[in-house]
Amino acid sequence: MITTVLHGLLILAAVALVVGILWSALVVILMAYVLLRPRRMSDARGILELGRLCPSDLGLEYEETVFAVVDEDTGKKLRIAAWWIPNPRAAGRCAVLVHGYSDSKIGAIAWAPLLHSLGWAILAPDMRAHGESGGKFCTAGFWERHDLRQVIDRLKISRPSQTRQLILFGISTGAAICAATAAGREDLAVRDLAVRDLAAVVLECPYADFRNSATFRAVRLGMPGPWFQDAALRLSQWLARCDFSAVRPVEMIGRIACPLLVIEAGEDQFVSEADRRAIQGAVAARPPQHGPSVYWELPGAHHVLGLAANPAEYRRRIEQFLTDALHTTPAICEK
Predict the structure, then answer these.
(1) Is the pTM of this model over 0.85?
(2) How far apart are CA 176 and CA 21, in angstroms?
(3) In this predicted model, what pLDDT tens digit does every residue of 271-297 receive, in sequence order?
(4) Residue 264's domain is classified under what CATH number?
(5) Are 231 and 186 in the same domain?
(6) 268 by DSSP, 3-state: which?
(7) 21 with 102, same domain?
(8) Is residue 20 in some structural domain?
(9) CA–CA separation, 242 vs 146, rounded Å?
(10) Which tens digit of pLDDT belongs to each residue from 208-234?
(11) Domain range for 232
């Protein structure tokens, strides 16, 4: 009798162990896929969350355009959708606006009226796995940096007179993509000369490390603990054949060889205080020959809402930085 009971208990324990392992594996897989496949910004989301569908809703004329780039991961063609917002006063100046995680060009154009009023034409692309662009996984800049380089290269070839001075303006994860793109420009081949000629880079609410940011968000959302988060990050890198550590913004900042402005929100719910301090230190440590290096933190502002929190000061800071950057760019960034 006792033997039978013990045997039954062992079977139950074994079943519980198997169920626990399977449940844990399923949770990790789901977390990895959520990380790699953010919810796309649809027209319905654009209307409900942002109250707009396209630049004309902000009073800006635009053209829809598509770039066919080569996916550095698969070697296949990848469709990158974008909006081109012309500006008759731009005189060859163009800003590339790069949106954040689970957003799209619909979100990025919140900054378009400001830049347009300052005399810039604008390109707002949907990065891979976002908006109307192709691609299966978001890799926080690892593969996106290659996509963006090719987009810029093709843009400069197709609109040479409208892109003589080019800046990158990245928002949140878009800031990480812009930092990785700009940081690698010194190693680029001749065909990517367009990216080597950046006039300036603006990073809005960047995190120091994607893994830190993902973990920080997971904790705030009440998701399973550190073991699950670490396993999900490892699995996501394996699935997407990427390495998040290779595009850490805190390391990319020192390698951006042109003027840089970093804007951080003082009450950012998605970027930890430790990450903000690490970013601030990286900006302060940039070589002086790279040009102006500005770190600006907005007290009380939430993630990517600095423009809405203090539009007048935000405009003044952007205008002053770009004025200073364009005055120093020729001596610093031309090869």
Answers:
(1) yes
(2) 35
(3) 989 999 999 999 999 999 999 999 999
(4) 3.40.50.1820
(5) no
(6) coil
(7) no
(8) yes
(9) 13
(10) 999 888 887 766 656 666 778 888 899
(11) 1-36+225-242
Top-ranked range on mean pLDDT: pick from 11-15, 38-42, 148-152:
148-152
Alpha carbons 35 and 87: distance in angstroms, whole number: 37
Neighbour tally for 24: CB within 10 Å: 14
Q: How far is CA 222 from the centre of its chain?
A: 24
Same domain, yes or no, for 178 and 238? Answer: no
User: Are 292 and 324 a contacting pair, CB within 8 Å?
Assistant: yes
- DSSP letter (8 states) at residue 269: S
Are 28 and 137 contained in the same domain?
no
Please report the pLDDT score of residue 192 as a whole number. 41
Helix (H, G, I), strand (E, B) or coil at 285: coil
pLDDT of residue 275: 94
Distance CA 96, CA 84 (A): 9
Q: Give the total number of structural domains in the chain.
A: 2
With a CB cutoff of 8 Å and minimum separation 6, the contacts of 69 are 77, 78, 80, 146, 147, 150, 151, 154
Co-location of 258 and 151 in the same domain: yes
Looking at residue 31, what DSSP letter applies?
H
Tokens of residue 150, six digits: 């090719």
25 in the same domain as 66:
no
Residue 261, in any domain of the structure = yes
Distance CA 232, CA 30 (A): 8
Q: How many CA atoms, within 13 angstroms, populate the side-chain half-sphere of residue 178?
A: 32
**Residue 300 domain flag:** yes
Using the predicted structure, report yes or no on whether residue 332 has a pLDDT greater than 50: no
Q: Of 44-48, 138-142, 170-174, give the lowest mean pLDDT range.
A: 44-48
CA dist., res. 329 & res. 32, Å (int): 41
- What mean pLDDT do residues 19-48 have? 80
Asked if 96 contacts 166 with a C-beta cutoff of 8 angstroms, the reply is yes
Q: With respect to residue 215, please indicate whether it lies within any of the assigned structural domains.
A: no
Q: Are residues 238 and 296 in the same domain?
A: no
Of the candidates 99, 93, 94, the one whose C-alpha atom is nearest the C-alpha of residue 123 is: 94
State how far the Cα of 30 lies from the Cα of 115, in Å rounded to an integer. Answer: 39
Closest CA to 179 of 208, 153, 212, 159: 208
Same domain, 1 and 82: no
